[in-house]
Design a protein that fits this description.
- It is found in: Cytoplasm; Nucleus.
- This is STAT2 protein.
- One of its GO terms (biological process) is signal transduction.
- One of its GO terms (cellular component) is cytoplasm.
- Keywords: Coiled coil, Cytoplasm, DNA-binding, Nucleus, Phosphoprotein, SH2 domain, Transcription, Transcription regulation.
- This protein is of the alpha+beta class.
- The chain has a domain of about 150 residues: STAT transcription factor, all-alpha domain (Glutathione S-transferase Yfyf (Class Pi), Chain A, domain 2), CATH 1.20.1050.
- About 45% of the residues lie in helices and about 15% in strands.
- The strands form 4 sheets. A 4-stranded antiparallel β-sheet has the order 6-4-9-10. Strands 1-3-7 form a 3-stranded antiparallel β-sheet. A two-stranded parallel sheet has the order 2-11.
- Strand 9 and strand 10 form a beta hairpin.
- Helix 1 packs antiparallel against helix 2.
- The chain is elongated, with a radius of gyration of 30 Å.
- The termini are far apart.
C-alpha cells in the first residue's frame, strides 16, 4: 500500500499541474487519466486493507470470548483447589494464548498508526482512511483494554506458609503471601510498572479494619525474568487491626444480627500501572474472600466459613455472604469433605465413609 501511494504521489507531483489550461493537450489528458487510474487503485487497496483489519478484529473478538471462557474455567478450578480438589491450576497455556492475542492486537494498533501516517501524506475526497481509521482504532483500543483487564488475575490466593493446605485463613501478626499475574507478557521496558495491594478497598461498613504493615507496593523492573512473566509477588505481608475497629464483632450490615469474627470476609485488591505501545491503563484484580483470625482456636470456624462460601456462593466477591448464608445440600458437602481428606491423606472418602458421616450429621434414614 505504501509503494502504491508513493508511486501515485510521485506521478501527481510530476505530471499534474493545477491552474494551467492544458485542456487541448492530449498528452496531458492521458497523464491525468493515468493519475485517476492510479488513484482508483490506491483507493481500492486502502479499502481492502481496512476490510482485512475489520475481519481480523472480528476474529480476535471471537478468540477473546473463547479465551475468557477458558479463564473462567481456570478460576473455578482454582477456587475448587483452595478446598482441596485435585485440579490443574497451571497458567502457562492461558498465558501463552493471551500473550499471542495481545501481540496480534498491538501489531494491528501499529498498522493503524502507519495508515494514519499514510493518510497525512496523501488524502483525497471520500478517503476511507479518514472515516474508518478512527472507528477501527477505538474498537481496537476497547478490545485491548478489556483483554488486559481480564488478563490480570490472582495466581496465588492469600495464604500463610504453614497453612496445612488451608488457604484464605490469615492470622494477625503472622506473615502471609499472595501473587497476581498479568497473562499478557508485554510491557514497555522504559516504563516502570508499579503494583500495589489494598485490603478492603471498599469493604462493608462495620467490619474490622486492617492495615498492611509491610510494603504495599513494588516496582516491576525490566530486569525481572521475562520468561517468568509479569508477576506481582507480595511475600512476608503482615496484617494489624486498626485500633478504632470493633473487636470481635462485625456490624449488622444488611443482615439480621452481628457477624462473628470468622464470618467477616475480607478482600485484597491488586492494582498495576500498565503501559505498552502508547496504551496506559490501571489494571485491577481481587482475591477470593478470606477470613482474618487472631488466635489458632478460631481456625476451624474460619475454615468452615471458607468452605461454605466457596461451596455455595455464586458471587466469589460477596463479602456480605454470611448475612444470610444458604444451607448446603449433602451431595455438595460430601464432595468437598472428600476433597479435604484427599488433600491431606492423598485419598478421598468412599461411599461407606460418606454414609457414616451422613448418619452422624442427620441420623439413620
Amino acid at each position: 500500500l505504501e509503494d502504491v501511494q508513493d508511486t501515485f504521489d510521485f506521478c501527481y507531483k510530476v505530471h499534474y499541474l493545477p491552474g494551467e489550461d492544458r485542456a487541448n493537450d492530449p498528452q496531458y489528458a492521458q497523464q491525468v487519466q493515468a493519475l485517476q487510474a492510479k488513484l482508483q487503485i490506491l483507493d481500492r487497496q486502502r479499502r481492502e486493507v481496512l476490510a482485512q483489519m475489520q475481519q481480523l478484529l472480528g476474529r480476535s473478538e471471537t478468540l477473546r470470548d473463547f479465551m475468557l471462557e477458558e479463564l473462567g474455567a481456570w478460576q473455578e478450578r482454582q477456587q475448587r483447589s483452595c478446598l482441596g480438589a485435585p485440579d490443574d491450576t497451571r497458567l502457562r497455556p492461558l498465558e501463552t494464548w493471551f500473550t499471542e492475542l495481545g501481540q496480534g492486537l498491538f501489531q494491528l494498533l501499529k498498522l493503524l498508526r502507519a495508515l494514519e501516517d499514510l493518510r497525512q501524506k496523501v488524502t483525497y475526497e471520500r478517503d476511507p482512511l479518514k472515516a474508518e481509521t478512527p472507528l477501527l482504532e477505538r474498537r481496537l483500543r476497547e478490545l485491548l483494554t478489556y483483554l488486559l483487564q481480564r488478563a490480570f488475575v490472582v495466581e496465588q490466593q492469600p495464604s500463610m506458609p504453614n497453612a496445612h493446605k488451608r488457604p484464605l485463613v490469615l492470622r494477625t501478626g503472622s506473615k502471609f503471601s499472595s501473587r497476581a499475574r498479568l497473562l499478557v507478557r508485554l510491557h514497555d521496558r522504559n516504563h516502570h510498572m508499579e503494583a500495589k495491594i489494598h485490603i478492603d478497598r471498599s469493604g462493608p461498613p462495620g467490619f474490622r479494619k486492617f492495615n498492611i504493615l509491610t510494603s504495599s507496593s513494588k516496582t516491576l523492573l525490566t530486569g525481572d525474568s521475562p520468561q517468568d512473566g509479569l508477576v506481582c509477588d507480595f511475600q512476608y505481608l503482615t496484617l494489624k487491626e486498626q485500633k478504632d475497629s470493633r473487636s470481635g464483632k462485625g456490624s449488622k450490615g444488611i443482615g439480621e444480627g452481628p457477624l462473628v469474627v470468622t464470618e467477616e470476609l475480607h478482600l485484597i485488591t491488586f492494582t498495576l500501572a500498565y503501559a505498552y505501545c502508547g496504551l496506559e491503563l490501571e489494571l485491577e484484580t481481587s482475591t477470593l474472600p478470606f477470613v482474618i483470625i487472631s488466635n489458632n482456636n478460631q481456625l476451624s470456624s474460619a475454615w468452615a466459613s471458607i468452605l461454605w462460601i466457596n461451596m455455595l456462593s455464586s458471587n466469589p466477591k460477596d463479602q456480605q455472604f454470611f448475612s444470610t448464608p444458604p444451607p448446603a445440600p449433602w451431595p455438595r458437602l460430601a464432595e468437598v469433605l472428600s476433597w479435604q481428606f484427599q488433600s491431606v491423606a492423598e485419598r478421598g472418602l468412599g461411599r461407606d465413609h460418606l454414609l457414616m458421616l451422613a448418619e452422624k450429621l442427620f441420623g439413620k434414614a
